[in-house]
Design goal:
By secondary structure, the chain is of the alpha+beta class. It has five helices and five strands; from the N terminus they run βαααββββαα.
């Protein structure tokens, strides 16, 4: 089961929010929450609020347990840019780009993912050890065929 939450038009540059998003990607919700609470970056607070919102909607709407949820995806996309100008000397103007972000957070239920892994293991016909043995045999054959060529030396004429 997937739970999707989004935050649009956050007035922090996406590059700065991506640093925070990389900290929590793939983590369980409890671990992600503690990381975000102690992160010093300015983008940590909005991402924490979004995570709490996604967990609350998972509990209320889908009746999922918080302990089974983890952050499967978190994407930070670029929102609209506000273009401003800063006056400089001799009548020039320096452009200021005030960037905004859109954040999409997707939580997945860990118990469903584990069930799919078990089903995939049952379906698999050949064990992994046989595949590894075949690969090592092929690589050993390739290594025996390779031989080193002698180094070529340059012949120079000797002046008398």
């Amino acid at each position: 089961m997937e739970v999707k939450a989004s935050l649009n038009y956050l007035r922090i540059a996406p590059r700065k929010v991506r640093q925070v998003a990389d900290l929590v990607r793939g983590k369980k919700t409890e671990e992600a929450r503690t990381i975000l609470e102690f992160a010093i970056k300015r983008g940590a607070n909005p991402v924490l609020k979004l995570l709490n919102s996604a967990v609350a909607s998972a509990k209320h709407d889908f009746h999922l347990q918080e302990s089974n949820l983890f952050v499967s995806q978190i994407m930070v996309n670029e929102g609209p840019t506000l273009k401003r100008w800063h006056p400089m000397s001799r009548g020039r103007a320096y452009p200021i780009m005030k960037r905004s972000s859109h954040i999409i957070l997707i939580l997945k239920d860990n118990s469903v993912v584990e069930e799919k892994k078990v089903e995939a293991a049952k379906i698999e016909d050949k064990p992994k050890t046989e595949k590894k043995i075949k690969k090592t045999v092929k690589s050993a054959k390739i290594e025996t065929k390779k031989t080193e060529k002698p180094k070529r030396t340059r012949k120079t004429a000797v002046k008398k």
